[in-house]
C-alpha cells in the first residue's frame, strides 16, 4: 500500500543544493507530507512537513505542487553530513497516526 | 537528541527466548509508536498507543505485544524469538493532539540480535 514514490538513489556535490522528489498522487486533501532522514542506523530524524503551502525551516525547504500530488525537499547547501536515506511520508490509516516509510532515497553527498 | 529514550541499546539473546524493550517518550507526548527495521523489510510500523490505550495496529506478530503505562512509558515484549526477529526496533512519540501535532520524534533504537 505504497503511498509515496521516490527515486532509490541520488548524488549531490558538496555545497550544491540537493533536490529530492517525491510522488504522492493518492494523498487526501487533509493529509500532511512529512520528510525524515536516517543516517546509518540511527533513529529517523524529522526534517519538515507541510500541507499545501511551501515550507522552510533551518534544515530544508519543502515545495508542494498545487495539485499536491508531488513534492520536493530542498537541502540548500548539502554537506557530507547530509548523506543519508531520505523518506517522504504520508500518514496512513483511518485511525491512529502510523507512518508508511517506503524505501526512501539514498542521498550521497560527494566532496 | 530527540528527547525519546530507549533501553537497552543492544540485546543479544537466543531463539525461543523473551525480551522486553523499553521506551520513554518526550515530555508532554501522549502517543508512543513502535517500528521494526530489518534489512529486507525496511521500517515497518508495529503499533501505536495513545494515553495508555491501543490506537492503531500494523504488522505486529501475535508473539509481540506492547503496553503503555500511566507514566506514559511503553514496553514492547517479544516472545518465542526467531532468527528473523533480529532487527532494529525504534520507538517514536508525538503529542497527537490534532492534525498539526502528528510529528513523530524517534529514539535511537534497540538493536536485537537473536542467535
Jot down its keywords:
heterodimer; A: 111 residues; mainly beta; 5-stranded mixed sheet; 4-stranded antiparallel sheet; B: 115 residues; 7-stranded mixed sheet; globular
User: What overall form of chain B do the CA principal axes indicate?
Assistant: globular
Instruction: Provide the low-confidence segments of chain A as ranges.
Output: none
Mean pLDDT of chain A: 90
- Beta strand count of chain B: 11
The run of helices and strands of chain B is: EEEEEEEEEEE
Q: For the largest beta sheet of chain A, what order do the strands appear in spatially?
A: 1-9-8-3-4
Mean pLDDT of chain B: 93
| Strand content bin of chain B | over 45%
Amount of beta strand of chain A? 35-45%
Termini separation of chain B comes to 31 Å
Structural class by sheet pairing and helices of chain B: mainly beta
**Which two chains touch over the largest interface?**
A-B, 25 and 31 residues
Largest beta-sheet details of chain A: 5 strands, mixed
Binned, the helix content of chain A reads under 10%
Overall, the morphology of chain A is globular
Unreliable spans of chain B are none
In N-to-C order, the SSE pattern of chain A is: EEEEEEEEE
The total count of helices of chain B amounts to 0
